[in-house]
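Batch manifest line 518
LIGAND: zinc ion
JOB: complex structure
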Amino acid sequence: MGQARVSIFDTTLRDGEQSPGCSMNLDEKLRMARQLEILGVDVIEAGFPVASDDDFAAVQAVAQACRRPIIAGLCRALPQDITRAWEALRGAARPRIHTFLATSDIHLHHKLHKTRGEALEMAVAGVRLAKSLTQDVEFSAEDATRTDVDFLCQMVEAVIEAGATVVNIPDTVGYAIPSEFGDLIRVLNQRVPNLHRAVLSVHCHDDLGLAVANSIAAVEAGARQVECTVNGIGERAGNASLEEVVMALQVRRDRLPFETGVLADQIIRSSQLLTNITGVHVQPNKAIVGRNAFAHEAGIHQHGVLQNRSTYEIMTPESVGARTQSLVLGKHSGRHALDQRFKEMGFDLTKLELEKAYKIFTKLSDQKKEIFEEDLLAIVQDGLAQIPEAWKLRAVQATAGTMATATALVTLWDGEQEFTETASGDGPVNAVCASMDKLTGLKGTLLDYTVRSITVGADAVGEVFVHVDFGGTPSSGRAASTDIVDASARAYLNAVNKLVYARRNRDLQHQLLPAASA
Ligand code: KIV
Ligand code: ZN
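JOB STATUS: finished
ARTIFACT:
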């Protein structure tokens, strides 16, 4: 007999993107969406189309690009939201309208100023409208865990009657505890007579650190869809972490006889891609994807693992796609070897992409003797997805020390000419950024700057992430180099180029689609 299937609904691009520092531009969302498709999630929630033109465009683009998974777009239970969501989703191979309305008295009274009866009518009307547009309709009862249970049962029954195919029970404020949440799912199963006509879903936030435990308790109680995000990013303390939910189901299949469509060995890659895009790192001890998740420090543990890995390992690093650092290629490796290695890593590059990757590879192998899989990953996930560069870095030089003011000299190329500027600053990075501001005419304020090493050895590649505010518009940049000043300059310039690209794109969109901005 086959095992029951739990659908994995990924909301990294919607709820996840709402968390501070995690906003993504269209290209970044597309890269992440493609990886989520490879990861094998069942549903990708690509955005909240009515929220902004950018969100609308992202949902539309993901709907075009990812044809296997269901693509969901979020909307309030309001006609203008629902129709806007449908406009963004209509090109999807498998569209889903996801409409929501708060059901707790706290939200109804203080936020919506509606009675329960009015909320019921709104929800039913919203689902009916969505159903007239597409077959697959999800309804979420926002703040369900603080909703009167009788009213929640009434609401769930009514939206299923109106045509909802999925009913989601969010623990919006992360208030529930596992036994209580499991009981709530059981009560719904017992008391809602038409529940068998819909899939019961859960969506848990991590305010008490219980999002994953609550999601698992709900699955044990009968939920068959779990909403979650890569690295657990999301509003406030975040959402249930996808990798933890999936691996709990996989590792404890003895107690949890369920399967998902997720390819576990794509988990680390997905986690790293998200980190690369957002610059938001997971803590080292984060379950499954943290740097130390498989590190054995205590001597007694190391000894045990050397005897037999099962002594202290409940899953192997390989099972989630974390390969131990292995030397993969060197300076003299050719295109064929590179292509072969990429194929082994699961990347089938086009001729053009391979050519571009090879160029970056040869440049990198001039800088460092040994190329690791992490370096190749950085090449495909970063180098190949580079946005058009309005400005290119030609040279950077910085001097600093305790005895003198830091100064920098930067030369940029705008596609036609080279320009050079110098500036001083609080440190070499500050001086580099100030020189660039003079050159580009864009005044940036560094909100966040992180540097870490991504490969090992004395010639390790350092990776710099920056979050920059350009007069109220945020942008983020990332770059890697064996030289930290060079990496900092490139990361800052990456943020500048993304901003220029986004502005040009927006201007173009407005010229082509004047109605979209109305
Ligand atoms: O947390 C929440 O309630 C949500 C809903 C919109 C599903 O994100
Ligand atoms: Zn949420």
